[in-house]
Structures are given as C-alpha cells and as structure tokens.
Amino acid sequence: MSEEFDVGARLRFLRGKSGLSQRQLAEAAAVPHGQISNIETNRSNPSVASLRRILGGLSITMSEFFEPDEAEANRVFFSCDELHDLTSALYGSDAKRMHLRQVGDARQHGLQLLHEHYAPGADTGETLLEHDASEGGIVISGALEVTVGDQSRILTEGEAYLFDSRLPHRFRNLSGADTIVVSACTPPYL
Where's the HTH cro/C1-type domain (predicted)? Predict the structure, then answer.
C-alpha cells in the first residue's frame, strides 16, 4: 500500500457514496460531528478505535476502507508481503503506534486473522472497543495488557485471550519492547 493513501479523501468519498452528510455519519457512528470534518480535511488522523467506529457507521471494515478493490477469491496461501496492512496509511512509521496486517479476504471467509505489532507505548485508545463478534489471540513475543470489561491482565509470550467482543476492550503495550500477537475475530470487524 502506498504511504500516500489519503484517509480524508477516502472517507469523504465513501460517505458521499452512502448518501450521508457529515452530521448523519457522526450520528450513525456516535462520534462528534467535528471529528468527521477534521478527518476528511486531513487536519487529524483518527485512532484505530475511532476509525473502526466511524466505518461502522458506513457498515464497512477497515480492510474494505484500505483495500477496496482487491479480490482474494480462492486464495489459500499468502507470503508475508501479501498481508493487507490495515494501519500504515493512518500512522506511517510512527513508532508509538500499532501495525495490523490481515490475511486474505476476511469477509469472504467470515474470519479475520491478524498479525499484530505493538511498538512500546502503543494503545488502541482510551475509547474502549466494542463490536458484535468473538475474538482471541496469542502473544508471540513481548507483553500486552488486555482489558476486557472490568478484567485486565498483562499477557506475555505464549499466553492468550478469548472473549465476547461486545464487552468493552482495549490493548496496550506498556513495556519497553515490541509485542507481536496473532489474533482472530469472527465475524470480521476491522
């Protein structure tokens, strides 16, 4: 994916295609109206949680947002460089962010499989994530704080999580080292 991806222009295009005003999309996504305007004019970059929420108002995934025309029908195998980078267009090389890479067409299979990289200090955001799905993952290396509802735990290499994604949740790397996670979500959410 090109580093020149215009998040604002893409959001503006998809909002217009759906026939929604900025205010209508903000209401559908339960975000402030000004947030839509600031993103569309590239005055601010949304967090992953905020973008997920906004795209939910359009009933599309992050994968569809960033890779709208790529067909994966009948693909079985994927090399490392063929994974869909869902976050670089938002954050570039910002070392305080996370990088989420998806295997294939999640919607086609009803399963989203991700390779996640959390740099030290990376955080999905203070706004807790909630969506209609189930998700789980295994920490491959490093340490990741996972908060689900009123439970929180720092997971290290080999430890895992599995929960109902309708519960508010958050992921943070509070350590000084990179963290790698392999996760799955069904139905796909990003």
Answer: 11-65
According to DSSP, residue 155 is labeled E
User: Taking the CA atoms of the chain, what radius of gyration do you get in angstroms?
Assistant: 16
pLDDT for 2 beyond 50? no
Rounded distance between C-alpha atoms, residue 190 and residue 172, angstroms: 18
176 and 139 Cβ atoms separated by less than 8 Å: no
Name the E strands within the chain. 84-85, 98-102, 112-118, 134-141, 143-148, 151-156, 160-164, 169-172, 179-186
Q: Where are the beta strands (DSSP E) in 74-172?
A: 84-85, 98-102, 112-118, 134-141, 143-148, 151-156, 160-164, 169-172
Per-residue pLDDT tens digits for 40-73 = 998 988 887 888 889 989 988 877 787 655 555 6
CA distances from residue 78 to 112, 173, 187, 190 in whole angstroms, order as listed: 14, 27, 21, 19
List the alpha helices (DSSP H) in 79-141: 88-91, 106-109
Residue 41 has which token pair?
Answer: 């004019």
Domains contained in the chain, CATH given: 7-60 (1.10.260.40), 80-186 (2.60.120.10)
Contact indicator for 83, 90 with CB cutoff of 8 Å = no
Report the amino acid identity of residue 116. E
Distant-in-sequence, close-in-space partners of 80: CB < 8 Å, separation ≥ 6? none
